[in-house]
Amino acid sequence: MSIATVAHQSLIDRLWPAAERPLVRQAILVVLGSLLLWASAKAQVPMWPVPMTMQSFVVLVIGMGYGFRLGTATVVLYLIEGAVGLPVFAGTPEKGIGLAYMVGTTGGYLVGFVVAAAAVGWLAERGWDRTLPKAVAAMAVGSVLLLVPGVAWLAVLIGGAKAISLGLVPFIAGSVVKLALAAAVMPLAWRAVEARERSR
């Protein structure tokens, strides 16, 4: 295996290399990732000024841990699950399900999930998940790309000023916490994997 190949390897590829049945492996990982997203949408952490779900944290970690293609596919599957009526999103089924929910006030953020996972996955495949400074930068890019479509769609529905005050400002503190946590997780995971490999 060349150094270039190792540098572009995602964390999941190192932990579970593609073997004789790569499609089965990919299917298992995508389904497991979508289930993790489902669970994270339902878990709330008390925080001021609004409760925080761990969903955007999981989106960023899946994107960075899985890489561009697998991370994007995982989030897309999650959105398909929601589109067909499974109560996978935060606030479902109480606030509605399916496409009706997806075109509501949270629709832009759901699009942002895909964009963010793809972006951090692409950066991870170029080594941005190996050191803390680069991981922070990658996660910051992912966080911005997650929020921008959300606020933009909200602005279409309720106006720009309200979109910023209701759809951005209350979530800044939580986003910073999740960004820092996600950025710390990936380099630590790589160190653990490399230490395990050295000890063999």
Explain this structure to me?
The chain has helices at 3-7, 11-15, 22-42, 55-66, 68-83, 98-102, 107-124, 132-158, 160-167, 172-199; strands at 44-45, 52-53. With 200 residues, it is mainly alpha-helical. The chain has a two-stranded antiparallel sheet. It contains 10 helices and 2 strands. The radius of gyration is 17 Å and the shape is globular. The chain has a single domain (3-199), classed as Arp2/3 complex 21 kDa subunit ARPC3 (Orthogonal Bundle). Residues 1-6 have low confidence and may be disordered. A hairpin with a 6-residue loop joins strand 1 (44-45) and strand 2 (52-53).
Quick structural gist:
Helix content is 72%, strand content 2%. The protein is built from 10 helices and 2 strands; from the N terminus they run H-H-H-E-E-H-H-H-H-H-H-H.
Put simply, the count of helices is 10
Report the major sheet: 2 strands, antiparallel
Structural class: mainly alpha
Helix content: over 70%
Count every beta strand, where a strand is a DSSP E run of 2 or more residues. Answer: 2
Count of folded domains:
1
**Radius of gyration (Å):** 17 Å
- Please give the CATH class: Mainly Alpha
What's the architecture in CATH terms?
Orthogonal Bundle
Q: What is the distance, rounded to the nearest whole angstrom, between the alpha carbons of the first and last residues?
A: 18 Å
> Beta-strand level of the residues, as a percent range?
under 5%
pLDDT < 50 stretches: 1-6
